[in-house]
């Protein structure tokens, strides 16, 4: 456990979420590369001294949205459930994953990464 503060207090929560997602992604990819070829040195760049290009940032945002899709239950089948529950709520896990995906996408955008506009939250999405 470290005693260092969690990021810059002047950063928005969205930017902190983006930094955390970048770190998690880089850790996973570096672990995979280290297992295959030895111990790679992380490249220098704009995120904590590590290099992340727009394509990688887009991949990170897409991973966050894919997690939401994977956790979302399929819609009810009208053939087997003729009267779906009215006002049924989204499971809490999906709501939390959606909040995280929105924060990551907004944070990456705030950091200046160019993302496919389909990955950016629209006005109809509630960030929670």
Verbal overview:
The chain is mainly alpha-helical and 128 residues long. It is built from three helices and no strands. The protein has helices at 13-37, 54-71, 92-110. Helix 1 packs across helix 3 (92-110) and helix 2 (54-71) runs antiparallel to helix 3. 19% of the residues are buried.
What are the SSEs and their pairings?
Layout: H1 13-37, H2 54-71, H3 92-110
Helix pairs in contact: 1-3, 2-3
Strand segment tally: 0
Major sheet details: none
* Class based on secondary structure composition and strand pairing: mainly alpha
Low-confidence stretches: 1-5, 39-47
Oligomer: single chain
Tell me, rounded to a whole number, the average pLDDT: 78
The residue fraction in helices comes out at 40-55%
Summarize the structure.
The protein has three helices and no strands. By secondary structure, the chain is mostly helical.
Quick tags:
128 residues, 48% helix, disordered N terminus
